[in-house]
Amino acid sequence: MSQEKPVRVAIFGLGLIGGSLGLALKAAGAANVEVIGCDIDGTVLRKARQRGAIDKGEAHPIRAVREANLVVLATPISVLREVMAEIAPGLPEGCVVTDTASTKEGPMLWARDTLPPAVSFIGGHPMAGKEEAGIEAADAGLFQDKAYCVCPPADAPEAAINTVLWLAQTIGARPLFVEAKEHDQYAAAISHLPMVISYALFSLVRASPAWQDIAPLAASGFRDMTRLASGDPQMAFDICLSNREAVLHWLERLSAEIDRYRSLISAGEKPLFETFIRAQLDREVFLAMPPGTRPQSAPGQRVEDVPNLQESVVSFFAGRGSVERWRRLASLGSRSKPQQEGREKDGDQRDPGPHSGRR
Amino acid sequence: MSQEKPVRVAIFGLGLIGGSLGLALKAAGAANVEVIGCDIDGTVLRKARQRGAIDKGEAHPIRAVREANLVVLATPISVLREVMAEIAPGLPEGCVVTDTASTKEGPMLWARDTLPPAVSFIGGHPMAGKEEAGIEAADAGLFQDKAYCVCPPADAPEAAINTVLWLAQTIGARPLFVEAKEHDQYAAAISHLPMVISYALFSLVRASPAWQDIAPLAASGFRDMTRLASGDPQMAFDICLSNREAVLHWLERLSAEIDRYRSLISAGEKPLFETFIRAQLDREVFLAMPPGTRPQSAPGQRVEDVPNLQESVVSFFAGRGSVERWRRLASLGSRSKPQQEGREKDGDQRDPGPHSGRR
């Protein structure tokens, strides 16, 4: 979509996502983009206007989509189908409709069933968020450098796809094409599973009779690991219903993984240590070279198939002292078991020299 | 301990914790405190000196404790018993020894078995950390306002306890008395369980054959929930071994809690929604009024026993719009099920008026 002629964008739902979209659009190309906001709550529309997230608030859905080039549905997924049905009669011919819901199979089906053939629906999901909800928490930088999943139906016109790519790029995000079914599986693993685990961890520890004594010991670890439990409960509920099978699948797999860790911890041997080191190294690679930013591998070859990944990683981080750390950890790991036993039995130290390590 | 006369503190292990302790001590009372550092690694001693974490580096343990008033053992717990045995012959009479290990039952026993009767051991555990390890990551502010668990044996002299309280307060932490056995249970719940879950979540998703496609979708949720898996693998291993029973106990309980969530999600009814709301409200209370900072309840009465907690919470957050949010969520929750079904069956909207919500 050319930025030369003004683009009219209608955003439905001016919470965290819709409000941030409006702010980011206005910040990026104010002169060429006119943003119309529609929300069930008049106060929210006023606040969105005051914050500069929208040029104009419109309470009525049909009036809100009038002459719109692009309609962004950022409502809770639980009302998404209804909103589609409501705006359907008023959508201009050639208009592009997209959404921001956390799952994509449902919205794609609902769009096919409710929207007129003269408009194009392209599923969308910006992979960004924070625990605060509402227009007050909206932030023009929320999408900066974040992935923005784009799910075009098989028959989507290229111009419609480009419109949603334009939206993603204008707000600073990295558009990523993904098929709806795969999106829902991937999002379950990387987003919905962590969310449910965050709730489960918090509610478990909170339910302890010793909570009043446990809680004062909480440091950043517990706070970070339960942060997602402070998100919008309505969204958590909607996600679990709209992506139920995938969420249940990943919860089952995590239970199995926890069982694996329980066995490793029960045994308390080198494989536990190797599991921790492996995870730490893999996460360093993930943070330093997230997939998608790496040089393309040969077809069929994955980065993890490259021989000597471990050495590569160690070399890569050499400048940060990891080689030394790795060597130290590896040597500690290999002698950890005899050491563990030795400490209990062996009062007579074989090496009486300086022997303090460090954490 | 009076700050009028100089205090000689020997810190063993100048990694993140030992290094930060030195920096915090020097920052708080440089003139009155002399810090001697001892580490297995000469490079670390030099860096600690350059960073101002210690006044003097000493490679030999016996020389390091000479004339020390307070000895802080900040080595990995896996070498703690050895270090105690090494310094035992050189400890001055009346000297106080403390540690910073993540568990307390083991160190208390080892101290009783290895240290001479003329010195006092008081267990310690500052509840602070970050994923970076080593002297490079040391930070004078690491302990600011953090809990610092203090575990005196039953027969500890008051002066020895006061020395460790002085240490905790000088570095800006909040000392908290806790019995060693309870400490290990509580730390398992609030610190070791989240750590293991962080590893399990990362290694599970990382092991997926679709990882290369899943990872680009990762947003702050996945990163935060797996942050602890970037911690020191040696420490993770040591914690799991030294607090094995408690960690296994809490992992088992979390598995049961995950099963409960799986049932709730399978059913997809109001109890799931209530569980999410309950957790979110409880976490808001936890963040706003963490236990220990609240006005004292009447004896035997816990804060959660106060009638109408829910209303209190809602009123407490009224200024931040939570009353409105709560009402909206509650009403959405109660109609969520019929809505879910209705959406699928009912093409004919009963309420054709403005109907967009917001996330």
Quick structural overview:
With 359 residues, chain A is of the alpha/beta class. Chain A has helices at residues 16-29, 42-50, 61-64, 80-87, 105-114, 158-170, 180-206, 211-214, 220-225, 233-242, 244-267, 270-288, 309-316, 322-334, 336-345; strands at residues 7-12, 33-38, 56-57, 70-73, 96-99, 120-126, 147-151, 174-177. At the A-B interface, helix 1, helix 4, helix 7, helix 8 and helix 9 of A face helix 1, helix 4, helix 7, helix 8 and helix 9 of B.
Spans of at least 5 consecutive residues with low confidence of chain A: 294-359
- Oligomeric description of these chains: homodimer
Q: Indicate the overall shape of chain A.
A: elongated
Determine the fraction of residues in helical runs of chain A and give it as a percent range. Answer: 40-55%
Average predicted confidence as pLDDT of chain A: 84
In terms of structural class, how would the helical and strand content of chain A be classed?
A: alpha/beta
Task: Count every beta strand of chain A, where a strand is a DSSP E run of 2 or more residues.
Answer: 8
Largest sheet of chain A at a glance? 8 strands, mixed
